[in-house]
Design brief:
The chain has 360 residues and is α/β, with parallel strands linked by helices. The chain contains ten helices and 19 strands. Helix 1 (20-31) runs parallel beside helix 6 (158-171), helix 1 crosses helix 10 (340-359) and helix 3 packs across helix 10. The mean pLDDT is 95. Bound molecules: flavin-adenine dinucleotide. Flavin-adenine dinucleotide (FAD) binds next to helix 1, helix 2, strand 13, strand 17 and helix 10. The site of flavin-adenine dinucleotide has 40 residues, from helix 1, helix 2, strand 13, strand 17 and helix 10.
């Protein structure tokens, strides 16, 4: 009889969690020929659907360490994924560029130093004479916004992305189950994942992509893995004011840490908050819109037309994300606090390589 190592393409992998991380892992492994089952009781209400979809890769200013390596790899992998995914949705794309702005002179000096030291044609500093800055200063009724532009970064619509990934998963005939996994255990050479309805799913490997809940399925104390919830809120704001045309602004930008996506002449999305809780704070309009010393009148008078939140998981005592081979055939890929959408391609590639190393 062939061993698992010789026959890895017949191996069955269970992926717990169908957020962006679970879906990317499923596709990556399915491309390698594995049989994949993805399990999630509530895939439409996760933090991936709450995301704004900004891909802040090349604009990231710490150019060393694991965090940069993952970003760099994701920047390279995204165009390949887009090409594949466009077979299922020809309109799916990364809207570029991405603009990061500040009103803080010290911060701007750091931006300039970063541009100078990296000498990257895809990154440029934006001074007061730039047309982008002129329009932004005019709309926000200020004079002191400056920043940088990255022509390689941008935004992907998370809803369109997740729906397209689902089409691809169906095309690859990846099994999908709506169960909630409440226990996993090793039995001989296999893993048994038990659902709340007492269904047992047998597999050769399990990958935990279920964010915060991953630690409920492992002995987190002896494995020394702690995750804490970080809630993020975003809102769509209607601006009924002839004073401003939001379409004069760039398609996506960040001012003093808040992400802004104009949707139409009088509608924009702003996000997100970092709340160390599982219940959304109230009165977030103030918190989300207070990113300048003086708020423009149109924003002050804005009305929330939609509001949503997602709960992310942040590792305690170690950097995000947590990607580990926990024991024979059990992998964890979680703790995506920020940038889970950006990092999904690099992280699923990392897991696939770990699995190949485990099998050979
Ligand atoms: C408001 C907001 C804005 C954001 N903006 C951005 C952005 O602009 N760019 C970016 O890159 N990132 C952004 N993020 C972060 C990004 O959304 C997350 O990093 C990413 O979605 C994490 O994906 P995930 O698959 O790990 O988790 P999730 O999407 O939360 O998926 C986890 C899944 O596991 C399932 N699950 C849990 N327990 C079980 C179980 N026992 N059995 C089976 N399934 C289970 C859940 O139902 C869920 O579907 C944002 C987040 C928020 C909240």
């Amino acid at each position: 009889m062939k061993s698992l190592k010789e026959n890895f393409q017949k191996a069955h992998v269970v992926i717990v969690g169908s957020g962006i991380i679970g879906k990317f892992n499923a596709l990556e492994l399915s491309e390698l020929g594995f049989q994949v089952t993805i399990i999630d009781p509530n895939e439409l209400q996760n933090s991936s659907y709450a995301a704004l979809g900004l891909l802040m890769g090349n604009i990231y200013q710490k150019r060393r360490g694991r965090s940069w390596d993952l970003r760099k790899q994701s920047i390279e992998l995204w165009p390949q994924w887009i090409k594949l995914l466009q077979k299922f949705n020809s309109e799916l794309n990364i809207e570029k560029p991405l603009i990061q702005l500040t009103t803080n002179e010290e911060k701007f000096k750091k931006f300039e130093k970063f541009i100078y030291e990296n000498n990257d044609p895809n990154l440029r500093s934006l001074e007061r004479d730039s047309i982008f800055i002129k329009n932004i200063n005019k709309a926000f009724q200020t004079q002191n916004i400056k920043g940088i532009i990255s022509f390689k970064d941008g935004r992907i619509n998370p809803f369109a992305l997740l729906q397209t990934l689902n089409k691809y998963l169906r095309h690859k005939k990846i099994n999908f189950s709506e169960g909630e996994i409440i226990k996993i255990r090793k039995s001989n050479n296999h893993w048994i994942s038990t659902t709340r309805n007492n269904e047992n799913i047998k597999s050769d490997m399990v990958i935990l992509c279920n964010s915060l809940k991953a630690i409920d399925l492992i002995d987190s104390i002896s494995l020394n893995i702690t995750l804490k919830p970080v809630l993020g809120q975003a809102m769509e704001i209607d601006v009924n004011d002839a004073e401003v045309d939001l379409l004069s602004l760039p398609k996506q930008f960040n001012i003093n840490g808040k992400n802004i996506i104009p949707k139409s002449k009088n509608k924009l999305i702003i996000g997100s908050t970092d709340e160390y809780s599982t219940k959304p704070e109230e009165n977030t309009f103030e918190k989300i819109t207070n990113f300048l010393d003086k708020k423009p009148n149109w924003l002050m008078k804005g009305k929330i037309s939609k509001k949503w939140y997602g709960i992310r998981s942040r590792p305690v005592g170690e950097p995000s994300p947590v990607m580990k081979n926990l024991e024979d055939g059990l992998f964890i890929c979680t703790g995506f606090y920020k940038n889970g959408i950006l990092l999904a391609p690099a992280c699923s590639k990392w897991v696939a390589n770990e699995i190949k190393n485990y099998l050979y």
